[in-house]
Design goal:
- The structure holds two protein chains of two kinds.
- Chain A is an alpha/beta fold.
- Chain A has 13 helices and 18 strands.
- By secondary structure, chain B is of the alpha/beta class.
- Chain B is 32% helix and 19% strand.
- Chain B has eight helices and seven strands, in the order E-H-H-H-E-H-E-H-E-H-E-E-E-H-H.
- The longest helix of chain B has 10 residues, at 89-98.
- Chain B is globular, with a radius of gyration of 15 Å.
- The chains are: A alpha/beta, B alpha/beta.
- The interface between A and B is large, with 52 and 41 residues.
- Chain A: Heterodimer of LeuC and LeuD.
- Chain A: This is 3-isopropylmalate dehydratase large subunit.
């Protein structure tokens, strides 16, 4: 019986010739990741279990991104605990203020994660790196602690859903619209415990930033991971960037899939998830009645350079609607700098936006854009659960950077093709 | 191993943001986290929960963030077990890893009502609703996972 791409990567990392869905395995890890929220719990578990050495100080990544520059004293204590641990163990990939970025934008950008890898991260959006052709999944802090100590992690080998893409996206439609469309179609548990394996002739038309957005939100359909095949786009992205040689895995022709979903990219339109679940999708064009108070453009889902460019193209030379607070957050320092060099930051500010240094801040209701009771936000982030961005009676509408920027200009949910 | 307690029942898709809102994630302290457990879905929960009580959820319980703070808050609040139709996968493995007993049982999730007194036998997977007399059979854990649970969590099992 053939294996999926995910199953092949897992088999190779478990030292097995073949694996099948449902099998429990112990796999070797190429990279282990944590952030300023999840790492402190992992450090406590690591110490409590009596470990005093990490398995490899070059394979552990600690990124301070959720609450930095620190929002309060307690958050500062958590960052300090991460910093002290990183110093004590000589963690090479420790990223503090000034060089940090949002973890899932930063690790691919720096070439730390690469095709064929097996990666765990104590953050649910670790599934992002599937865009590079890696197996990558979110875990908890205890898994991170065990991964730091042993370089291994237990997995149940997932079954898979195959998503066959044809056609190409309309210029105002992005990878974000594609993944929102998929979640709307299969539901927030439609891929529970499974991999989402993307394939088909439409893959070639998706940029790496699109693919990273798509895989980032695989978890919002309950998936263990999302994964794209390695093609010319991947190789062009990894060349000169990947810090390690990469390995290309391909699904067997007779691989078994629980389900196959076909999506014609030409047919997709700008899509928005209404509160309070990512599966509540509608076309952006149906949002004219939804008046908004805030727009957030950023996050591990949509804070990359193409996202900034999509927002800039719509906002330059215009001004956000009166009463709308527009917050733009480039996801890494390199993207932040590029926005400065290209003059986009000036255009954002002239349009009435604020531009922040990288942080997860508002996405999870941490800081930098908390909503009051009854307020509404169009956000390029990944979750619109009750209270996600502030008050339990506030509302988050998930959208692409183009839709968010267009909505900032009008003050209501707006299809970017109408601007 | 057994647990008996009163049920706090919740719907489908209970996410980790309502189990422990991110505004409280500036500390890893389990007791501080437990004080805000379920706050954004049921602000009364923490005032009415008794040691040994059981949470019953619907499908996809614990979806969203990887925060282990969520099962940790539930466990530290005194909850002995979570029963759901299905669990989101990171919540599922986090619960096993920290030693919070969880059981997947769609029939029990559908039938058991808020306030019922329920007994759970973890060795057999049998769930008894003592209020109605109904019994349900949950899927037992595979031996690999039972070993983690018996060791008292993942860190103990790998330290062995």
């Amino acid at each position: 019986m053939g294996m999926t791409m995910t199953q092949k990567i897992l088999a190779a990392h478990a030292g097995l010739e073949t694996v099948e869905a449902g099998q429990l395995i112990n796999a070797s890890l190429d990279e282990v990741l944590g952030n300023d929220i999840t790492t402190p719990v992992a450090i406590n578990e690591f110490k409590k279990a009596g470990f005093d050495k990490v398995f490899d100080n070059t394979r552990i990544n600690i990124v301070l991104d959720h609450f930095v520059p620190n929002k309060d004293i307690k958050a500062a204590e958590q960052s300090k605990q991460c910093r002290d641990f990183a110093n004590a163990h000589g963690i090479v990939n420790f990223f503090d203020v000034g060089e940090m970025g949002i973890e899932h934008a930063l690790l691919p950008e720096k070439g730390i994660v690469t095709a064929g890898d097996c990666i765990i991260g104590a953050d649910s959006h670790t599934c992002t790196y599937g865009a590079l052709g890696a197996f990558s999944t979110g875990v908890g802090s205890t898994d991170m602690a065990a991964g730091m100590a042993t370089g291994k992690c237990w997995f149940k080998v997932p079954a898979a859903i195959r998503i066959v893409l044809t056609g190409a996206l309309h210029p105002a439609v992005s990878g974000k619209d594609l993944i929102l469309h998929i979640i709307g179609k299969i539901g927030v548990d439609g891929a529970l415990y499974k991999s989402m394996e993307f394939t088909g002739p439409g893959v070639a038309s998706l940029s790496m930033d699109d693919r990273l957005s798509v895989c980032n939100m695989a978890v919002e359909a309950g998936a263990k991971n999302g994964i794209f095949p390695v093609d010319e786009v991947t190789v062009a992205y990894l060349t000169g960037r990947s810090q390690r040689p990469w390995t290309v895995y391909e699904a067997d022709e007779d691989a078994v899939y629980d389900e196959t979903i076909e999506i014609c990219l030409d047919e997709l339109e700008p899509t928005v998830s209404w509160p309070h679940l990512p599966e509540n999708t509608k076309p952006a064009s149906q949002g004219k009645e939804i008046k908004i108070d805030q727009v957030v453009i950023g996050s591990c889902t949509n804070g990359r350079l193409e996202d900034m460019e999509a927002a800039w193209k719509i906002l330059k030379g215009k001004h956000v609607a009166k009463g709308v607070r527009a917050i733009i957050i480039p996801a890494t320092m390199a993207i932040y700098r590029e926005c400065l060099v290209r003059g986009w930051t000036t255009d954002f500010v002239d349009a009435g936006c604020v531009v922040s240094t990288p942080t997860c801040g508002p996405c999870l209701g941490g800081y930098m854009g908390i909503l009051a009771e009854g307020e509404r936000c169009v956000s390029t982030t990944n979750r619109n659960f009750v209270g996600r961005m502030g008050h339990v009676k506030s509302e988050v509408y998930l959208a692409s950077p183009a839709t968010a920027a267009a909505s900032a200009l009008t003050g209501y949910i707006t299809d970017p093709r109408t601007i | 191993m057994e647990a008996t307690g009163f049920v706090h029942k919740y719907p489908d898709n209970v996410d980790t943001d309502v189990i422990i809102p991110a505004r409280y994630l500036n500390t890893p302290d389990a007791k501080e986290l437990a004080a805000h457990c379920m706050e954004d879905i049921d602000p009364e929960f923490i005032h009415k929960v008794q040691k040994g009580d059981i949470i019953v959820g619907g499908a996809n319980f614990g979806c969203g963030s990887s925060r282990e703070h969520a099962p940790l808050a539930i466990k530290t609040a005194g909850v002995s077990c979570v029963i759901a139709a299905t669990f989101a996968r990171i919540f599922y493995r986090n619960s096993i890893n920290i030693g919070l007993p969880i059981l997947e049982c769609p029939a029990a999730s559908a039938a058991i009502q808020n306030g019922d007194k329920v007994k759970v036998d973890f060795d057999t997977g049998v769930i008894t609703d003592e209020t109605t007399g109904e019994t349900f059979q949950a899927q037992p854990f595979p031996p690999f996972i039972q070993n983690i649970i018996q060791a008292g969590g993942l860190m103990n099992s790998i330290a062995e």
